Amino acid sequence: MLLTEADLKAILEAALAEGGDFAEIFLERRRTTSISCEDNKIERVISGLDQGAGIRVIAGENTAYGYSNDLSRESLIQTATLVGKALQSRPQPREISFKRPQAQVEFTIKKRPDQVPVAEKVALVQRANEAARAVDKRITQVTVGYGDVIQEVTIANSDGILVDDERVRCRFVVNAVATDGKVIQTGFESAGGHQGWELFESVNPEEKARQAARRAVMMLEARPAPAGKMPVVMAGEAGGTMIHEACGHGLEADLVQKQLSVYAGKKGQKVASDLITVIDDPTIPGKYGSYRFDDEGTPGQKTVLIENGILKDYMYDYLTARKENRRSTGNGRRESYQDRPIPRMTNTFIAPGKDDPEAILRETKYGLLVKRMGGGQVNTTNGDFVFDVAEGYLIQDGKIGPAVRGATLTGNGPEVLKIIDRVGSDLGFSLGTCGKDGQGVPVGDAQPTIRIPEMVVGGILDEEDKG
């Protein structure tokens, strides 16, 4: 615990003595290690410690927020007083009695990353770099990164919530570049989770590096993608980038309440195919977006957002839930003590269906098979999106055909969800750092193999490919 209960009460009472009807303090101590290898040499080995406290006071619809990296009682009482005064509202002093909510899940860390020598972490990065470069002489550049974070938090508010938690995460990434002198292609692989060094019991860093390099070389040799409307099969291993971007952000309650979401006002309505169920769940052990408590002290919980095509719920933090006189769904997240919490996704995915993934491919005569997604853009107001395909193949007579490069997927999230006609029994996760309002938080996303009967694929129009 980063401060005593008596100190926490004094700080919260100081905030309310100056104005507001709700006060909260978020204390954080974060220890990080970051290692990167570029140009065949270790470029950076950085270890750091950052700590501080964020104080929030709410009065009606108004919020004031301040932070300090001085964790002394006197400094934080002073900060709380200033934050409370900023609201210029009537003081509402009251006695605070803390209670500790029960987490719905417990995570076991087998080997803490701070128990692993830095030299061992550096050696892992070097092995991955060498493995990627050995794949093909056309690999011209390899970047390997490793990072870990141990985040201790104490969260207390004037409603009496008091939480202590520790989050431990490790992440490993490889990016390989291949060129033949005319064309340049890249391959990317990553692994990570809410877990310690045991991540590498199930993840082989050298093999991950080779996969990234092989993808870069394969895309170098791939033919240009065809263009036009066609069926698209998205493999489970493609991860849930599309559901995260084209659907997930639109189900965050702050965007819904501001009428910046295509899903605003549609709770209880049909917004997707009967085959589609979308879930957000931070309680899945080991996943990158998992946690026991969110950054407001609410226990993490599984939230069914869309069930059999019907919009059931949105993702709420304390403030958006307060506006609707309901409970938070445990999605209040922030990048650090310097940031106010906002509704964010955690591990968001399309639930597996009943179809055999191989049968989905076999029963698709022609189209595009997407095995890896790249970057993209989405307009949450109307759901329109454009995504790059990092690894794609033509589907010819129900079989995987030649690899293609330069493919893009263009469509509308809600419309795509409505026409999905096959959902596989598999489930493939990907991970990343999701950006919103200038804040980045760790997330996971996933989907099973799905088939979209018709989608606009951008590429180079070539009628011969339709065979």
UniProtKB/TrEMBL annotation:
Determine the domain of life of the protein's source: Bacteria
Q: What GO CC annotations are associated with the protein?
A: cytosol
Query: Whose protein is this, by species?
Result: Moorella mulderi DSM 14980
Please give the Gene3D superfamilies that the UniProt record associates with this protein.
PmbA/TldD superfamily
According to UniProt, the name of this protein is Metalloprotease TldD
**Which is one GO molecular function term here?**
metallopeptidase activity
PANTHER family membership:
METALLOPROTEASE TLDD (PTHR30624:SF4), UNCHARACTERIZED PROTEIN TLDD AND PMBA (PTHR30624)
Q: Where is the Metalloprotease TldD/E C-terminal domain?
A: 228-459
Sorted UniProt keywords: Hydrolase, Metalloprotease, Protease
